[in-house]
Amino acid sequence: xxxxxxDRNWKSAVxxxxxxxxKRESEATRHxxxxxxxxxxxxALGLGPLAWIVIEAQKSRLIPGIVGDVDILAxxxxxxxxxxxxxxxxxxxxxxxxxxxxxxxxxxxxxxAESGGLVWPPKSSHxxxxxxxxxxxxDQIKSAKSSKDKVAGIRSQIDWLENMGLDRxxxxxxxxxxxxDEQSGGWLGAAGEAQRAxxxxxxxxxxxxxxxxxxxxxxxxxxxxxxxxxxMRGAGGLQMLRAPQxxxxxxxxxxxxxxxxxxxxxxxxxxFADLPVPRYFPVTFLDCRTCRKIHYLxxxxxxxxxxxxxxxxxxxxxxxxxxxxxVG
Length: 328
Ligand SMILES: [Zn+2]
Description:
- With 328 residues, the chain is of the alpha/beta class.
- It has one domain (1-78, 119-328).
- Helix content is 38%, strand content 20%.
- It has helices at residues 21-34, 37-44, 59-62, 82-95, 101-114, 148-163, 186-206, 230-233, 248-251, 255-271, 317-323; strands spanning 51-58, 69-76, 127-137, 141-142, 168-180, 216-225, 238-242, 283-288, 293-296.
- Strands 1, 2, 3, 4, 5, 6, 7, 8 and 9 form a nine-stranded mixed β-sheet that branches.
- A hairpin with a 4-residue loop joins strand 8 and strand 9 (293-296).
- Helix 4 (82-95) packs across helix 5 (101-114).
- It is globular.
- It starts with 20 loop residues before the first helix and ends in a 5-residue tail after the last helix.
- The model is unreliable at 1-11 and 308-328 (pLDDT under 50).
- The structure holds zinc ion.
- Zinc ion binds at residues 288, 290-291, 295, 302, 304.
- Zinc ion binds next to loops.
């Protein structure tokens, strides 16, 4: 059985189970977005690899007079000339035929962006959002937000994503576990913990949303493995419980929702107006409460990116590959 590791000799790993409840959701969102899971989530929300993401976007920046934040806000990017983009994808395919298509597209995007072909700041025509909840499992689920009031609060947050005029929206439940080291089975031990956590969460997930909700629903039950946090080497994938549906209030022409959407689309270019053109995709930003502005997630000037800080995040996988000058 997994145990809580008292004697940690690795640095810079921050496990969900070790974080106080206020910061856990924030950290869970970052862990999720470090992984390929973000591509699956974006895909279900109607977005491809050429997208932007803002973590914890304040709604007041998007639509005046609305409070709170959207844990994950994402939208599409556009290019000055899509035939240039298509030519770049063909070039990547012939240069690196064995690479996954997503990576070929991302690196083609990087090439075109660097030659000035990306519309920046972006004007988006498809905008999606997700709320993230994070619980953890130590033989039973903790911090599940499963009381009647908490469930009502979650449903209200989801209703707001609909009322803001987002195209699609979803709820993502993340469940962390105790850290599994070599004695407790390593990665396999962690996968077992993740499975037990998922089973323990089942009933709670079933009651999260109304039966007719257009929101998508996802769960990421992730076993923590010693040696790197869930964003680096967690055991367990993102599971889609139901696919996000198109926003029914946009389809029915709800006046207030259409007005919100108009304001939202108009505000998007201003969010990114002062930021340099991205060089990796999907490009990820943080609406940072510490810096009081939106900046690149990996911004070295942000105190959260100090390597000694528990808020430390790196760009995992493809993003690292795509953001270095080595490739493409
Ligand atoms: Zn910051």
